[in-house]
Structure formats: structure tokens, C-alpha cells
Design goal:
This protein is mostly helical and 112 residues long. It contains four helices and no strands.
Length: 112
């Protein structure tokens, strides 16, 4: 793959995951405001999440978007600010992505 094609794919993945994250964060914050205003307890919220397959699915999408978006953003920061690039940085950020994915999916599994 050419460097220009790889950069284009990273750009598309970064912007696409940002769009997904914008929706996920909005839904998450609206849910928090709703729960707070209606005096729902943590136990009641967990019961609702566990009773509906849509909420865990939503949070799985959220986790995947974070696992894509954050490492790409870190890659850009390391490149622009520190001049770090290359295979070692790519491998490090792959580990970061996999760690975010594993920890996020574990959290969703605990909720579901």
C-alpha cells in the first residue's frame, strides 16, 4: 500500500470514528441527564441495561469507535509534535488499540 493511500485510509477512519463517537457521546450524556433528573439508582440503571440487548450493543459500538479513533489521534500527535513515525510507533499504537478494545469490551461484558 502506498503511503498516500495509507494516509487517506487513516483520515477516513479517524473522521468516521469521530462521527460515530459524536452520536455515542450525545446518547450517553442524554442518558446520564435523564437518569439523574429522574433519580434512578445505579442498580436500577444496571437492571435496565441488562434487560435490553440494545444497550450493550450500543456500548460495543462505542468501544470500537474509541479503539479506532484514539490511537489514530495519538499517531498524529506523535508524528506532528515529537516527529515519531515508523513501524515501532505503528506497533505501539496497535497495542494501545487492542488494549482499549479489550478493556472496553470487558466493561461492556460486566454491564451485560
Amino acid at each position: 500500500m502506498t503511503p498516500a493511500r495509507a494516509a487517506t485510509l487513516r483520515f477516513i477512519a479517524q473522521r468516521g470514528s469521530a462521527a460515530v463517537l459524536a452520536v455515542c457521546v450525545l446518547v450517553h450524556l442524554v442518558t446520564i441527564v435523564y437518569a439523574t433528573r429522574h433519580g434512578l439508582s445505579a442498580a436500577h440503571l444496571l437492571a435496565r441495561v441488562r434487560a435490553n440487548v440494545a444497550w450493550p450493543a450500543f456500548y460495543v459500538v462505542f468501544v470500537f469507535a474509541v479503539a479506532i479513533h484514539a490511537p489514530l489521534g495519538l499517531r498524529a500527535i506523535l508524528d506532528e509534535w515529537a516527529g515519531l513515525r515508523g513501524r515501532a510507533v505503528d506497533l505501539l499504537l496497535m497495542v494501545v488499540a487492542l488494549l482499549l478494545l479489550a478493556l472496553g469490551l470487558q466493561a461492556v461484558q460486566v454491564l451485560a
